[in-house]
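Example 3.2
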Amino acid sequence: MGIYDTISGLDTLFIPYDRVDRPPKGRLAILSQSGSFALTAMDVLAREGIGVSRMVSYGNKIDVDEADCLDFLRDDDNTDAVIMYIEGIDDGRRFVESAKRCGKHLFAIKVGRREAGRRATSLHTGSIAGRYELYRAAFREAGITELSGFEEFLDACRVVHRLNPTSGNRVMIVTDGGGMGVSVADMCADVGLQLPQLPDDVRRELEDMLPPYFTISNPLDLTGNATDEWYLASLEKTMTHELYQAAIVLLLWGPPALTEALPAKLCELSDRIGKPFVICSPGGRFTEKMSAIFEPLGMPVFSTPEAAVRAASIILKERKGR
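Structure, written as C-alpha cells:
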C-alpha cells in the first residue's frame, strides 16, 4: 500500500477516503507487511481520534524492510512508539540490531505462529514464517513487546497514544464496584500483573480519610457511595507510593455523586503523578455518555475488564510469559 505520512502530508494509498478514513497527526508509527491489516487499523484509529506519525505498508519487501524503517524512525523526533505487523523476517540479526538502536517503544504482532498461519503467510507475501520460538527470543533480545492479535494491536495503539509504557508489573485497582474489582484482580493474575497489598502507612492514611465501610485493600472498593473526591484522594495516596507502577481505575457510573468533572481531574492527576491510569468503564447508555468525556482529553476508556487488563499488560513491560 505504501506510505501514509502525517508529517510531510504524503499519502500513497490508493483506497479512497470515503472507504478508509485517515488518522490525524500523532506520535505513533505503524509498520506492516499487510496492507489490509494496516488500513483496517487506521480506519479504527481515525474513528477514535487516535493519531499516527507515519504508516508504512511494505508488503513483499523487494527494496525496503522493517529494519530499514526502524533505522529511519530512530532519528524521527515525531515518533515515540512503533507498532509492527510481521509475517517473516529475512535478516534476523539486522532486525534485532535496528530495533535496539531505534530508541522508541516497540511493539509487534507476529503472525504465522502455527502451521495453518505459516502456510497462509507463504501464500500472502512469500515470507518464510520460521519457528515462532526464534521470533519470541528475538523480540525479547530487542526489547520488543509482543502482541497477540488484532484486538491487542488496537489496544496498544490506544494506550500508547496517551500513556507512556513503563517498566514493572505492580498494579493498583480502585473501583466503586467490589465484584467487578475482584474479577479484574483475577484477570491481572492471569497475565502476570501483581497486586501488592497496601503498605501499612498508606493503609492507615486511607482508613483515616475514608468511611469505615469502604474496603481498604487492593482492589480498593469505594462502594456505591463513591465521590469524585474519594476517587482522586485514593489514587493520589496509593499511586504516589513507589510500590505501584500503574492503576486500573474501574469506574462504574451508578453512584449518583460522581460528576462529569471527574474525567478531566483523573487525567490531570495521572499527568501530575507521572504514572499511567487505565480507565475501565463498562455499562450502557449513560456510561457511554460519561466515557465520551474522556475522548477530547486523549484518555482511552475500555468498556470491558478484559480490555483494560490487556491494556495495562501492554504498557507494563515486565510480564509473565513475555
